[in-house]
Design brief:
The chain is α+β, with helices and mostly antiparallel strands. The chain is built from one helix and ten strands, in the order αββββββββββ. Strand 2 and strand 3 form a beta hairpin. The protein starts with a helix and ends with a strand. The structure holds copper (II) ion. Copper (II) ion (CU) binds next to loops.
Length: about 140
Amino acid sequence: MKAAVFIIVGMTVVGIVGGYFLFRSPDDGDTRSNAPVVSGDSVRTENGTQIIHIVARGGYSPRVVTAQADMPTRIEMETSGSYDCSSALTIPSLDYTKQLPATGTTIIDVPAQSKGEVLTGLCAMGMYTFDIEFV
Ligand SMILES: [Cu+2]
């Protein structure tokens, strides 16, 4: 009888904890920024060049950007009091590594990417990332 009560209590605890992980949104873990995961406002076109604006501070915002393939592209990395490791930026597929200034705008020229290409940027430790998906 004691064992049965134990099992019931145990299953209830597992159910509550499991439910918490099941129903919280994946973003709740990231309390460092209230950044939108996907943003349409971060891409603009100037003189035939598409400019992707990404903010680096406690992570990258937005974390996923959809961009146009086959178009000269420029990433505008904005830092603003960014003293965390998101300022130590690496974009492996471009062979790009740079310590961004704590505050400022850093331009990264990107050759036109083909459709389906995904450009991933990450911090020095690889814990923050952003993806630019070319469509
Ligand atoms: Cu990091």
